[in-house]
Each structure stands twice: as C-alpha cells, then as structure tokens.
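User: My instructor asked us to take a sequence, write out its structure as tokens, and then describe one feature of it. I'm not sure where to start. Here is the sequence I was given:
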Amino acid sequence: MRTAQAPALAPARRALAAVYAAGGGSAFGTQMATLALPWLVLESTGSAPRAGLVFAVSVLPMALLGFAGGEVIQRFGARRTMVVADFAQAAAIAAVPVLAAVDRLSFSLLLTIVAVIGVLGVPYFAAQRDLATELAGSDPKALMRANSVLEGCFNVAALAGPAVAGVLIAALGAESVLWFNAATYALSGLLLWWFVPRTSRAEPPPAQQVTAAHTGILAGVRALHADDFLRRVMVTTVSFGFLMRVLMLALPLLAFERFGGDAKVGGLLLSGFGAGAIAGAAVSYLLGSRLSPALVFGLAAFQLVLPWWVLLFNVPVPALVAVLAVSGAALPLSNAPFFSILATRFAADIRAKVIQAVMTISNIAGPLGFLAGGMAIGRFGVTTTLFGLAALSTLAAVNLVVALRRLSPVVLTGTQAAMTAVR
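Assistant: Let's start with the prediction itself. The structure tokens for your sequence are:
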C-alpha cells in the first residue's frame, strides 16, 4: 500500500517544497530590499525624510489595495499570481541599478518602482497560503504543518535578510545588492513555474461556479462578518496586530529608559523576539501532527501575551530576552493554526479572499499601533504604556479562548466541495 501511494504523493510533496523554498526566497529578497532601497536614497541624497518616504510607499499598497488582492487570486489562480509577481518584482528591482548606472534614476522614478513592487506583493502572501492549502489537502493537521513551515521561512528571512543585506551593502554598495534581490525573486518564480504543475487543481474555478456572494473585492470581509466564530476571532486578531506594533516601539524605548540608553540592549530585546519566532515555527510543525489547531491556537494566545507582564518589572536583560523569546515563539504557534482553520472553513472560490481580508485588516491596524504607541509613551511613559499593553492583550487572549469554545465545524455543501476539488 505504501509503495503504491508514494509515486502519487511525491509530485505534491515536491510542489509543496517548491512553495516553501519560493516563499522563503521571495521573503528574503523583500527583507533585503527593505534595507537596500532606503540605504540607496541615503547614499545618493543624504535625506532621511526621503528614505522614510521610500519605506512608506513600499507598505502603502497593502493598506490601499489589500482587499483587491483576493480578487486577483480568484481570477488568475494562486500559482499564476505568485509566478507573475515574482518575475515582475525581479524586473522592477533590477531596473533600479540599471537606471542608476545610466544616470536616469530620479527620486520620483524610484518611488514609482517601489510602489509597483509594493502592488505586486499585495496578493502574494494570501496566494502562497492558498496554494499550500491546495497542495497539502484538507486535513487540518497537515495544513498546520504546512503553515508552520511557511511561518518559519518568513521568520528566518525577516531575521537574516536585513543582516545579510547590511553586510553586502557594506562590501558592495546598495546598488549591487539590488541585483541579489532581483535574483531571489527570479529564483522564486522559476521554482514555482517548474515544480508546481499547472493542473486543474491549481487553477481558479470556472467563472460560472463562483457564487454571487463570493464576488467583489469585499467578499472576504463579508464572509468573515457572516461567520459568528471568525467575527469574534477577528477582534483578537486586529487587537494583536495593533498591540504588537506598540510593543515593537516600546522595546527600544524601554532599553533607552531603563538601561541607560544602551542601544545593544534594544537590539537584544528585538532579536530575542525574532529568534523566538523562528523556534516557534519548528515547535508548531512538531505539534501539528499531535494536537488540534484550535487547541494550539488558544494556548499560543496566552503564551504570546503573558510574558509581556514581566516587562513591567526591573529584571536583568537576559531574563527580558528570554521572556520575549517565549512570546515571539507564540507567533507561528498562533498564525499556523489560524490559517489552517481558515483554509478548512471556506471553499476554494472564497478562501483566498478571506485570507487576504484577514491580512489587510491586520496590516491597517499596524500603523495605527505605531501612532497610538508613540502618543501613549509620550503622555504616560514606557512602563504605564506596557501595563496597558499587557492588560489589553490579555483581554484579547481571553476573547479568543471564548470564541474557540464555540468553534463548530463547517460542513461544505456539495457545490462548495466540488469547487474545492476543482482547485
């Protein structure tokens, strides 16, 4: 029996491995570009405001066009969306050093290129999760393992990408590093194009099979609102997206205030959180075959927020780094089961739009968190702000657990199941 199954499973496993590698490569290129593009502006103009504008333009498309990303995936399919985005981003990034070499790179043109790259990245993450769902199947634990690997790829890229970019910029210059960025995108596109087959399962369902309720750029939002369980979960998701930004802003200021302005301490605190997130992805993968996604999701919510209470006390730096690592490990332990629950709760004709809606709403909450965090710290101080952060996040975790206790399985109709099989 095992011998007969192996050949059939091997192509899907290779395709899923290609999705992992492509996702990691694309994320690595994005993280490198996050440092290299503003640095290029600083080298050429010395203007910090202009460098900040480049960063703002790179993230603005998700806030403005995020809901439209699901429409793109529904129309063209997850695989095609990712391949086109990777190759187009490779060309756009490569255009920067080419234009600079011929002295044709104005600041306005650079902003245009950065905006194009940002737009191309809008549907990428949701398409990646959707494609992984198609390849991994409908088993919740298998989906949790797949999402855990994707979380790990992203977290490794987030930690290593800027560090590698910094080393290469120092050795070669920002313009040369952008060629490496372009290569990561191109390699990602090639992996998906070559190893993920263009089967009926990986293409969007026929237009006549997409129900009217699942059309339009806000279809994902409507689906979330109509689901009693997810409507409550989204309160916690948005709260965490908001409060996490407050924490990221508060940590350097905590190091500055409590440890005599030692920048190394601020770096350690942020690195501890990032390193914990990488470890958490591995733990999430191991738990994926043993525990239900709902149980892991609920436990991870408290693992994320309870360590924040320790930040209120004057404890040594190693202790702070340790508790932040524990908290950071909870990110993939919560994200992986959450996306697994989403994937099994909706049919293929709406799944990508729901994932895109969750991402967009969370990303809109993020900048508001930075703004509110800065205002709160300026008015009340770091410690008081951290107290409010810990209290509000604990309430959000309690809300999530209450929602999970009401979680009931969703049985897809015959038409919905057929559409899922088409994908």
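For the description part of your assignment, you could build on this observation: The domain at 213-422 is CATH 1.20.1250.20 (Growth Hormone; Chain: A;). Try explaining in your own words what that tells you about the chain.
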